[in-house]
Amino acid sequence: MIFSTYTFIFIFLPIVFLGYRVLALFKRPIYSKLWLVLASLYFYAQGSGTFFVLFIADVLINYALGSLIVIADKSGRRWTKRLLLTAGLLLNIAFLGYYKYANFAIENINLLSGQAFPLLEIVLPLGISFYTFQLIAYLVDCYRGQTKETPLIDFMLFITFFPQLIVGPIVHHGDVIPQFQDPSARLFNRANLMLGMFLFSIGCAKKILLADPLTDYSAAFYANVGAGDTLTAWAASVGYTISYYFDLSGYADMALGLALLFNIRLPHNFNSPYKARNFREYWQRWHMTLSKFLSDYIFRSFYKKGSGSFNFYFSVMMTFFVSGFWHGAGWQFIVWGILNGVFVCMSHYMYRNKLKLPFLLAWTLTFGGVIATRILFVSDSMSEAWQVLGMLVSGADFAGLGLQATVDKLLAFAAYNAYTIALLLIGMAIAFFGRSSAQMTQEFQPRIRHAIAAAFLLGVSLTQMTSVSKFLYFQF
Question: Of 173, 268, 287, 327, which one is the catalytic site residue?
């Protein structure tokens, strides 16, 4: 089930919200929690197919392992908890590896060996990359002694809570489980309700009005790169750069808004990343919950404080290698991760040595790097990415043209693609100069103007919601 559909907005959400509010009136909180768990499982089952039973088994096994690790930690059985953690990590990595990387491995074995082993018929389960990270973090924190024994209903709700189940934000158990256990979460909160509806409407508009049409335009070019030209390559590459931001941040806004309807505050995932002047700052603003997870559980596994610059930069590179491989099963994703790691290392080197470029130059280089890495991200292969990058810089379509002919070509392209260019300009204006959702949340005070804005954005979005369009990160 997708947030930006009539079924979700007019059927699923009202039923779940009203049911929760009625059950919250009872003194026993388990009723309202169980209702949310069952609703979330139903939500997930709509798109998970036959994987649904395996998903439930995966969650329950991880809960059992986490509980056993906590018990072993309390009784001082160090080797027992190590074995349990190892078993849990291997289980989660194997589970994710089979569904996400089995065919990638077969393709490379075939390439190296000259064999023709058939690919497996595997459908990537919804949200597996995101909830697997949450399960791994939970097990590691159990091992570190940072968790207590958690009731099963709270753990199930932590993993399955439908606003963030499929595409995040990646939440830490310490951030949300205490909220589920807080009696005030079951009280009606008018301010949270209004803020939730406001954020949901903003996210919906980002997705429907900006991300979807830009994605459609860009995808059409990348589906047949050889038939495109330089100007289309630029429009599609910048279009994907803008659409990915509004698609993923739109989902995050909707997730935060939905959670607030139940008085749960999820962490913000974006903070105007395209305003960044270097890649170090960019990754502090983009997909922040993923960056935090990678920092806490990957970077700190390699980096030892006081061990020198080489260890620091090596840890950064390993972190982005993992990030690239997590995002997708393809060499272009690995190169994407490595290239981002190099850019972040360069930014850290300049920061450590107090080197600073003029803002406009620094921002231009950063945004240019973001476009280049996005091309890697959306291309089907390294060769396709290289072909697109070549089209951007070659200028072959303008070779031999005089000034007037060049101007005429640009004007003709602008006239033919006026709608897409207008969306690009609007999207870039919002991304470069607008306030982030985090800023709007901090400044929010329930006012009639917010209700009007929410109604307008949601109303316009509903008129364009004629077909179901998946979020781009569903494929990860």
Answer: 327
